[in-house]
Amino acid sequence: MRADLWRRRDVVAAGMAGAVGMALGGCGQADGTPFPGALLGPDMARGHAIRDGKLPKAVGPEERIPLVIAGGGVAGLAAGWRLAEAGFADFALFELEDVAGGNARGGANGVTAFPWGAHYLPIPNREARALIHMLRGFGMITGQDAEGAPVYDPFQLCADLEERLLWRGKWQEGLVPTTGLSPQDAAQWRRFDAAMEAFRRAVGRDGRPAFTSPSALSSRDETYAALDRISFADWLKAEDYTAAPLLAHLRYCTRDDYGSEPGAVSAWAGIHYFAGRCGWAADGAGESELTWPEGNARLARLMAGRIGARLRPRHSVAHVARDGGDVLVDVFDHQAGAARRIRAQAVVLAMPDLVARHVAPGFAGTSRFSYAPWVVANVAVSRMPWGPGAGLAWDNVSSTSASLGYVVANHQTSSAADGPGVLTWYQALSQGDPVTLRKGLLARGLGEWQREIAADLLAMNPELEGRIERIDVWRWGHAMVRPTVGFRSDPARMAAQAMNGPVFRAHSDLSGLSLFEEAHYHGVLAAERALAHLGRGVESLL
Hints:
Blueprint: H1 3-24, E1 39-40, H2 44-51, E2 63-64, E3 67-70, H3 74-85, E4 91-94, E5 106-108, E6 113-115, E7 121-122, H4 129-137, E8 141-144, E9 150-152, E10 163-167, E11 170-173, H5 183-201, H6 222-225, H7 232-238, H8 244-258, H9 267-275, E12 289-290, H10 297-307, E13 311-312, E14 315-323, E15 326-333, E16 338-344, E17 346-349, H11 353-359, E18 371-381, E19 395-398, E20 406-408, E21 421-428, H12 434-443, H13 446-460, E22 468-481, H14 491-498, E23 503-505, H15 516-533
Parallel strand pairs: 1-22, 2-16, 3-4, 3-17, 4-13, 10-19, 17-23
Antiparallel strand pairs: 5-6, 7-12, 8-9, 10-11, 14-15, 15-16, 18-21, 18-22, 19-20, 20-21
Helix pairs in contact: 1-13, 3-10, 3-15, 7-9
């Protein structure tokens, strides 16, 4: 983003932070925070107990479960969903947290449900067969057209207005600036769009799409594989993309999907953002998104419901090791305060590499896996924001903000502009070393985060002054894997993908893209491989 815009953002944010302090006056909370709220996040105590080897050792007789899924994020839930679809019931899914879902978690208040992480699913590509099958089973696909393209339930699709951008003091529809561009800037933008469209249509010499989702189905042609060996920022420079508005938009995009700056992700990942998603749907809905008030927590809940009592939350998988032809799994039940050992014939490790390397060191090695920290806040307001120009949208972004803007959680359920609602605010901590940023994330208290969030919202929508009622903050220390340069050819990642039993890896980490489609693909693939290992092979949904 241009330096003058950064300076303007800093001045405005500082001014609004002062305004927040003055507006609150003596109305702060007893604990010193400016608003009611809570500081939330994944259960760090449980996670650190695994990391530090502090969980009690298993005692007593072994329990026999043919197939164990370790981890209840999207990949683990997808694996369990696939097993249930296959009619296989002899499994258990253990999840550390009280609620499954990983970063597809959500919450609710008296007005609406809201997301704590991922908040939408793009219309899947034709190649995402298993995901399309699942959406049809959930009633989100209601039919197909004459060419076989899925017909989506319109109530599951994002309602108008989908996106707006605060650009030069006025809201406009869409996230790409439509005014105030020089002829040179506009020409560069058209050239970039044409290049992305060419990548979107390209097919490698192996007959595969150059870029698609799930990314494992993308071409391995060296023409495209070479893009993994340079950064997106270096590729943009080599292609002579210098227009400040374009580069600012591309920075927003890489931070939005990858939690990282353009210089930290590969050119392959940067291009995949634009070329990899080619939604397949009837009635011109391919460019739409599926979204719900609670975001992707809706999909997590539906998958969990399909798994039923076989899903066991509040259970930490502490250790996984091979024992002859079997696998020994040590599990700690946090509710009962007891550890036990399970003997399984197959295990799906549906957990991020940063956990797997501690839980199953024999099946997860040193690699380039690194993770971006994020902050997500849900802000209850007594009246919805508006502002000059385009009306309130589902996704609202400011060109002068360091944040990623806010999503209106109740966009799908209420169109009342003057009613209460919840704004879900997102911030990727991307400028600097992730380890250092993670430490800073955890060191800041609730009040400090609330002041920053309120200042940012008031800079975008000054009319919210006096209308913010509560700010709850969720800290994601390891929100998403970063698709760094060279990651797609990393030997540890490739070995994890190729694991053929009795332990199978499943997580979006294996793609380097923390996206629902990727996690779902790897979960389904691991489940089908595990079934084959048990002699219960089924026709693949992939």
